[in-house]
């Protein structure tokens, strides 16, 4: 069979740019690559940010349901990807892929056929892996997993052996590597208090678990309707994101200023969470879904000796290490819902509505 079913992104814009095809060419693994029959693929913010051209520097607002649906009216989308480069269309998105190896390209051990694998979406090159041009992202700079089949560099397809379903494992790739990078940047220590904004999302709920593994106390910020689920997931304390004075709420809930903030929200939440840090506190951010433009009082940074870090590109070897956590059951999947791949429009609408805890997955 030379064709497959796939959801193909034809350009920046509305959902009508995501086109369902049942006659798309089935990929062939090149040298050093494997062909994976996709079992499931998770959703993440990168898919929507890229489709809508939100990464373009002229966009000043966050990802709302409206913007995440219709896209942003930009004059120049040449910097419309996370790395500031133009996207090549058509493109198959989807970074969070799980499946089985069906064929291998030249130079790959044929014994790998049949392996169940989880994809590491960071295709890091040799040399300076922190340089975006040397760190293409699967499903962005190359085709991803919103299809029946996909190809990827063999070293990025990690064998995984556990009792979880494909859909459960597909909640991990982007969320787990991103959350681990947030944690590595901020270095929470046993007994410290960590505040996580957007704690109910895929990254936030995973970061929660990673912080608990490190012995930290975790305060999650989310809508009140999700508090019981966050407590069940391991949150020690929770705060309603709608409180009128977030800084005061954090200090009251924590019993004082906190050591670490992990922020996936940004926007108006930025200054209150930074202001809740103790002297010498650490802040790390991997997202700005509520808005990339913030006001910042530099005196908070200077006179409290704070450390502020961004977290995007994941260090080499991270996924290989994290697979062991999954296999040992030390980190649990947070599967919110599963949709058929052809219903990706509906899945993304549910993702944008933010009524879920964890991650949403599609299956071909």
TrEMBL record:
Transmembrane segments: none annotated. It holds the Pfam family ADH_N. The keyword NADP applies. Keywords: NADP. It comes from the Bacteria. The keyword NADP applies. Residues 13-362 form the Enoyl reductase (ER) domain. This is Alcohol dehydrogenase family protein. It comes from Albidovulum sediminicola.
């Amino acid at each position: 069979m030379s064709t497959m079913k796939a959801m193909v992104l034809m350009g920046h814009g509305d959902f009508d740019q995501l086109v369902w095809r049942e006659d798309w060419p089935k990929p062939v693994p090149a040298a050093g690559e494997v062909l994976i029959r996709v079992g499931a693929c998770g959703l993440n913010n990168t898919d929507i940010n890229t489709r809508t051209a939100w990464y373009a520097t002229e966009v000043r607002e966050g990802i709302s349901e409206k913007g995440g649906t219709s896209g942003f009216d930009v004059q120049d989308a040449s910097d419309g990807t996370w790395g500031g480069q133009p996207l090549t269309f058509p493109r198959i998105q989807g970074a969070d892929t799980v499946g089985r190896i069906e064929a291998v390209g030249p130079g790959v051990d044929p014994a790998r056929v049949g392996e169940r694998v989880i994809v590491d979406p960071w295709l890091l090159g040799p040399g300076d892996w922190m340089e975006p041009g040397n760190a293409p992202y699967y499903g962005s700079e190359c085709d991803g997993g919103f299809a029946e089949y996909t190809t990827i560099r063999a070293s990025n397809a990690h064998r995984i052996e556990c009792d979880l379903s494909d859909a459960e494992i597909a909640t991990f790739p982007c969320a787990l590597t991103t959350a681990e990078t947030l944690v590595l940047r901020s270095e929470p220590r046993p007994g410290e208090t960590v505040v996580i904004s957007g704690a109910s999302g895929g990254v936030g709920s995973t970061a929660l678990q990673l912080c608990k593994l490190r012995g930290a106390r975790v305060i999650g910020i989310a809508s009140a309707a999700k508090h019981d689920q966050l407590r069940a997931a391991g949150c020690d304390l929770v705060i309603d994101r709608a409180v009128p004075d977030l800084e005061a709420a954090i200090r009251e809930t924590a019993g004082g200023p906190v050591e670490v903030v992990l922020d996936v929200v940004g926007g108006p939440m930025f200054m209150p969470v930074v202001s809740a840090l103790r002297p010498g506190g650490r802040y790390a951010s991997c997202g700005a879904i509520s808005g990339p433009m913030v006001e910042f009082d530099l005196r908070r940074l200077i006179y409290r000796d704070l450390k502020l870090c961004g977290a995007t590109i994941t260090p080499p070897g991270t996924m290989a290490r994290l697979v062991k956590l999954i296999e040992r059951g030390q980190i649990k999947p947070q599967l919110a819902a599963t949709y058929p791949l052809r219903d990706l429009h509906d899945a993304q609408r549910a993702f944008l509505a933010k009524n879920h805890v964890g991650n949403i997955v599609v299956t071909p």
